[in-house]
Write a structure and sequence with these properties.
The structure holds two protein chains of two kinds.
Chain A lengths: L2 H47 L16 H7 L11 H35 L5 H13 L2 H23 L7 H26 L2 H9 L4 H30 L2 H6 L7 H9 L5 H31 L1
Helix pairs in contact in A: 2-11, 3-6, 3-8, 3-10, 4-6, 6-8, 7-8, 8-11
Chain B lengths: L4 H26 L2 E3 L5 E5 L2 H6 L4 H30 L4 H12 L6 H12 L4 H8 L13 H26 L3 H8 L4 H29 L3 H7 L6 H7 L7 H31 L1
Antiparallel strand pairs in B: 1-2
């Protein structure tokens, strides 16, 4: 091969390389523009049309607050009767379920995290798997397995004792605790892994008994992890729809189950207004909980 | 404390056995039982439901896996450059803001985020409204209640699950390797394929698993956006628990779906291990 043809090839490949780079640079700028547009357009449109003067979501004709006013006056648009009372009641249900489920799940999750991190017993791998599975199996599978399980268990109790138990708060709470345990355990374990075990050994060496060591050393140090885990559990509990939908009974709908009933209908400006309110509230709630979490983590 | 480890773990183990393992075991048993009146499970044992799952309902199983795979691919195509864009911002504050803008929409309930697409995609929705007024189309496009709507909804629902793990691995990536590869004579394509991609692969694999698994089992998205054309296996399972339902069939479909999820998890673990060994 002559020198000149080698140069020629080199020049060709360099030109190609430049084209690739140019293409890549354009792509690297276009992609985020598209991605952010894609992520935010639905939210902006939803909020915008909750203030739209006409019922249409095809074009914006003017600003109004009347849909928000309608919600306060129990009007849901079209022919559907709607009650703000029922919605607030559903929200109270959500808070109640979330609080109880979070308390139980946090205790159970923190306990198993401690046991796995500090204890020494056989079958740890198996327990790891048991904790990991609820996080990965599809929600719908967990939902119907609990629904079937409660039905079978309640049928069985009815034939034995003659007393019929119906699904309600207790079933929702048991379901929420079940899916929350793993998340709490994961968060607390991460905190325990960051902790220096020598601190506990030092306390022991200084003559503290295990009980005292736990309450004076271990507990204060894992507390931020426990708080984070509890906040995560509470958020997941408030947010859950699928599992609650399958385990709730008459009159115990949580907010997401209630909202689902509205969203299944046609698009109305009132539903847009409710969605906007919920969006603002949940964003505030999560924002506040994250700030609290960051504070409690930095304090230790 | 050390000796008491088992006692500390016992209540939680007991809870998970009763409310997680036992219910799944009941589902497994139900899936082999016959359908009684009102859709409940009765004896004798049968394979009928599995035959139907792989017979008449195979097309829906196929569609679910296909849509989940497509969702994963689209999320990867959108999410990978996005993660790169965020982590290559020079100023820390810009990095934080661009990352926050990806996370913030997900502080809203999944139902509402999905509903927002009904506004956009509906026959009298925003997209059709804009296209009609611009004169680009003469009659409304059928966007809602299609598989395309489900795909869009799934990508929208799970994009951060792809972008965030990739972002984490791009953050760890040392860009001096790119200079080194260039100095050694590799062009951009080669550098990307031989250096950048392999080193960010753990994030890509994690992202794919995190998107694919919930997509296969999706229920809300196809329920709100798919109509009958976009029906997925999650909706089919849901239908078996209504008035004219068939709980054993629903159980069998759940077991099949779980098998799909387990297989994809195994693929993930296997790929990850090979990657770590390489």
């Amino acid at each position: 091969m002559s020198v000149s043809s080698e140069l020629l090839i080199n020049e060709g490949s360099m030109r190609r390389n430049r084209a690739v780079r140019r293409f890549g640079q354009i792509g690297l700028w276009l992609n985020p523009v598209f991605a952010y547009f894609f992520l935010w357009a639905p939210i902006v449109i939803l909020v915008l049309f909750s203030f739209n003067d006409s019922r249409s979501v095809a074009s914006f004709t003017g600003f109004t607050l009347k849909w928000y006013n309608n919600i306060l006056n129990n009007v849901m648009g079209a022919e559907r009767a709607f009650s703000t009372e029922i919605m607030l009641n559903a929200f109270r249900n959500s808070l109640f379920v979330g609080t109880v489920a979070t308390a139980i799940a946090t205790a159970l999750g923190a306990m198993i995290a401690l046991a796995l991190a500090r204890g020494n017993f056989p079958g740890k791998k198996l327990i790891d798997g048991l904790l990991f599975l609820p996080v990965v199996i599809p929600e719908i599978t967990q939902a119907i397995s609990l629904a079937i399980f409660f039905k079978v268990a309640f049928d069985w109790i009815a034939t034995i004792s003659g007393e019929r138990i119906f699904p309600g708060f207790h079933t929702i709470i048991m379901a929420h605790v079940t899916f929350n345990i793993s998340f709490v355990a994961i968060v607390v374990r991460a905190r325990l892994a960051d902790m220096d075990p020598q601190l506990e050994e030092a306390a022991n060496d200084l003559g503290a008994n295990p009980w005292r060591t736990f309450w004076r050393i271990t507990f204060p140090l894992v507390l931020p992890g426990v708080v984070s885990g509890a906040l995560l559990a509470f958020t997941l509990s408030l947010d859950d729809f699928v599992i609650t939908f399958f385990t709730s009974g008459v009159g115990t709908s949580t907010l997401p189950v209630f909202v689902y009933g509205l969203l299944k209908l046609t698009v109305t400006p009132e539903v847009n207004a409710i969605s906007t309110i919920m969006m603002v509230l949940s964003t505030l709630l999560i924002g506040i909980s994250l700030v609290l979490q960051a504070r409690s983590a930095s304090r230790v | 404390m050390r000796r008491n480890g088992v006692f500390l773990a016992l209540p939680t183990i007991l809870w998970l056995v009763i409310f997680f393992v036992l219910p799944l075991a009941v589902v497994l048993v139900f899936s082999f039982m016959s359908r009684g009146r009102g859709g409940v499970a009765i004896m004798p044992f049968t394979l009928e439901h599995y035959q139907r799952a792989f017979g008449v309902f195979f097309i829906i199983l196929q569609r679910s896996i296909g849509l989940a795979a497509l969702t994963t691919i689209v999320c990867l195509i959108v999410g990978y450059p996005l993660a790169f864009f965020i982590s290559t911002r020079r100023r820390r504050i810009v990095r934080q803001i661009t990352l926050f803008l990806v996370i913030l929409p997900f502080w809203t309930n999944f139902l509402i985020r999905t509903y927002a697409w009904r506004i956009l995609l509906g026959e009298e929705g925003t997209i059709n409204g804009v296209l009609l007024s611009l004169g680009l189309i003469s009659e409304a496009l059928p966007l809602l209640n299609t598989q395309l709507a489900v795909l869009i909804g799934l990508v929208y629902g799970f994009l951060p699950f792809m972008a965030l793990p990739i972002y984490a691995s791009v953050e760890r990536f040392n860009f001096r390797y790119v200079d080194a590869a260039h100095d050694l004579g590799a062009n951009d394509v080669r550098t990307f394929l031989r250096v950048v991609l392999p080193l960010t692969l753990p994030g890509v694999l994690a992202g794919c698993a995190l998107v694919f698994i919930p997509s296969v089992g999706a229920f809300v998205t196809p329920d709100l956006l798919g109509g009958t054309k976009g029906l997925m296996i999650g909706n089919l399972i849901n239908k078996q628990f209504g008035g004219s339902g068939n709980m054993p069939l629903g159980s069998a479909l759940s077991i099949v779906m779980m098998a799909v999820v387990m297989i994809s998890l195994l693929v993930y673990v296997f790929a990850n291990r090979r990657e770590a060994a390489a």
